[in-house]
């Protein structure tokens, strides 16, 4: 069976994944996290300042400014700069590419007269903090201090993403609606994806270090009750009093690293320690619900929405490719993307 997706409904994130469901935000984060490409015209490097990472038209982005943007991505979405030297090189190039695209989009938004009020950005940040930091706003502020960011810097990044989202809406506003015939054709072609995906009932304990996580796992392996240990040591305030119970989740609702472990082990098995954005985790799978095929009637509406989103993304990529080529982006050698002409391939969720 092919890769499954949740077609029935979206559910809140139980172990937060980095990023929110904005088309453009997801595109930029995919560049950072997965190395997905976007068409970028790479000009010859001509007289870039010594501390420059790239230049978009008349704007130079220094290495420090690029690092500051990456820190904002880290605080907001959990994007981590890798330790492996080869991976670091690709990460830096993809980060430079993402920032170049961001600069180009900012100019396009200005041309369209798009302005995001400060209150809208603050409201969005409040929602993000509530979703991604279940322990509360103090946890978010602590995280900012750890990565050396201020809240105004984060708000600026939020405003960029909201601006890009509105720009996306303008660029794609005349994309044709998806017809019933389109839905039927897509259902027939993608039948192996039309499933209510496998679900797992998971409990989780969050602690502050790998050593604490290993101590926690040792306690569980010697027979201590999971719920009691969670109430004793877990840092996750939203699940601590429930004995660490996260409820039932599909793979896409979990942090990717966490999901890989949670969907690998057998029922009643422990997994971890593993580190995510919010700390070190030790989990347990209580039950597994197998994937179930879905009928056309069950997926008709979400499939229609998905097809429309795909068409909008095609329109967006065509428009964005033209804007990027016209911008004549210049990169310092260390930051020049390895795949500057490869368009993005993933549909943001």
TrEMBL record:
- All copies of domain PpiC, residue ranges: 197-287
**Molecular function as annotated in GO:** peptidyl-prolyl cis-trans isomerase activity
Which keywords does UniProt give here?
Answer: Isomerase, Rotamase
Protein name per the record: PpiC domain-containing protein
- Give the source species: Pseudonocardia bannensis
Q: Does the keyword Isomerase apply?
A: yes
Pfam families given for it? Rotamase_2 (PF13145)
Q: Source organism's superkingdom? A: Bacteria
